[in-house]
Amino acid sequence: xxxxxxxxxxxxxxxxxxxxxxxxxxxxxxxxxxxxxxxxxxxxxxxxxxxxxxxxxxxxxxxxxxxxxxxxxxxxxxxxxxxxxxxxxxxxxxxxxxxxxxxxxxxxxxxxxxxxxxxxxxxxxxxxxxxxxxxxxxxxxxxxxxxxxxxxxxxxxxxxxxxxxxxxxxxxxxxxxxxxxxxxxxxxxxxxxxxxxxxxxxxxxxxxxxxxxxxxxxxxxxxxxxxxxxxxxxxxxxxxxxxxxxxxxxxxxxxxxxxxxxxxxxxxxxxxxxxxxxxxxxxxxxxxxxxxxxxxxxxxxxxxxxxxxxxxxxxxxxxxxxxxxxxxxxxxxxxxxxxxxxxxxxxxxxxxxxxxxxxxxxxxxxxxxxxxxxxxxxxxxxxxxxxxxxxxxxxxxxxxxxxxxxxxxxxxxxxxxxxxxxxxxxxxxxxxxxxxxxxxxxxxxxxxxxxxxxxxxxxxxxxxxxxxxxxxxxxxxxxxxxxxxxxxxxxxxxxxxxxxxxxxxxxxxxxx
Length: 512
Ligand code: SF4
Ligand code: FE
Known about the structure:
By secondary structure, the chain is α+β, with helices and mostly antiparallel strands. It has 2 domains: 45-310, Butyryl-CoA Dehydrogenase, subunit A, domain 2 (Beta Barrel), CATH 2.40.110.10; 314-495, Butyryl-CoA Dehydrogenase, subunit A, domain 3 (Up-down Bundle), CATH 1.20.140. The chain contains 16 helices and 14 strands. It has helices at residues 35-43, 66-77, 85-88, 109-126, 133-153, 157-171, 312-349, 355-380, 394-419, 422-425, 429-433, 435-444, 453-466, 469-477, 482-492, 495-506, and strands at residues 48-51, 54-55, 89-91, 98-100, 175-178, 201-205, 209-220, 227-230, 245-250, 256-260, 288-299, 303-306, 383-384, 390-391. Strands 2-1-10-11-7-6 form a 6-stranded mixed beta sheet, with no helix packed on it. The protein has a 4-stranded mixed beta sheet with strand order 5-8-9-12. Strand 1 (48-51) and strand 2 form a beta hairpin. Helix 4 (109-126) packs antiparallel against helix 8 (355-380). The chain starts with 34 loop residues before the first helix and ends in a 6-residue tail after the last helix. The site of iron/sulfur cluster (SF4) has 10 residues, from helix 5 and helix 7. Residues 220, 474, 478-479 line the site of fe (iii) ion.
């Protein structure tokens, strides 16, 4: 096989020649710059993706995937626009090259703040999850953790990871951060499960690498990524050694199968540009898949943790903080769109001057800015890690995400309140195409005289789309369920120090 040919040149060869170590030296292959480059790169992956029980040959032309791909493609498109260069790109600390910010390792507080601003910007453009943050956060969390593992154990993980990051930066690949295991019986640890594969684990160590088996659930953007960064899902005990594994796996590696999840109003995606879709170009939320890892071989140079159980918890916490940091940016940005949509809905039906509507819009703005404030605050109070990279403040990042689990539901509730029951009872777009009933729909769904019924219906569908089941559940459980944030409050909230404050003021002795 011609080793000089890249994965995106024809004929297709897998991204990595496992027999050809080092497997990520692909110098000379074109970097993905435009939306078209990105889509072409996905076409050539030939990875195993199932949708509704059937294998999908080309996800880039399949209506179930196109909106998600369009949303992720925005991370490429906006980076090429001079007006967004400052937010969307960064300078690599590894190579000095200008890179897409989604492949960057944060070098200071400013990088952390720009990340949040960037996410809010992209949410405004897509009205949807654009998926690329998960791998971004995985690279950053692994950056600090591998450094510390090496410091303790003399392992070569950090230098391996730096090579991997350089490769991602050079070609501008999209990475999916793969943390969540299916977890089976939640009362049992990984090694206590009746089925050992319910947590991803090492099944074999070979001279050239390791073999892993298991699955990763709810994987946002997995089907339209190039690489996965596998990480442990929780803190581990010594007996769970085989489950403490972090490594990079190309999505088209042998043994990888992706099964795409069903979303609320899924079938509407098949209506293409139709108005009933609500957000026809970018869809609903990110598009999640169950990734099955069936005896997947991973060369050593792609292994970044292998049995160092004592670091699994730190890696999970760092990744969680980095991802929870995002939510005031991306969900705050979606809330901005909903504020605008709700204000328009009021304009279109003549209620915009009603004082209660103005009060609700003000309340929605407050809720959106509150979550954004949290993201900016945890970034501004970020700290430098031993490895030299910067991570957000843990407690404030968790607070941000916990607020999102409440505020976004409240924003949706207020949007429903302003828009009215019509978002749940509106006729189909097809009714507008049948002259028998179109005249009635046109006539009786009309709001103010100067706005067409069609425009009003389009807007109401957007609100329905952005406040539907899957979108809200993502705000609740994405980046970890609310209880996970409460666990972090008790861990990072420094209760003992707060007890001391109270004792001091109440004049209770230290022993009291
Ligand atoms: Fe990024 Fe937000 Fe989507 Fe997570 S939910 S991948 S932070 S856009
Ligand atoms: Fe998410």
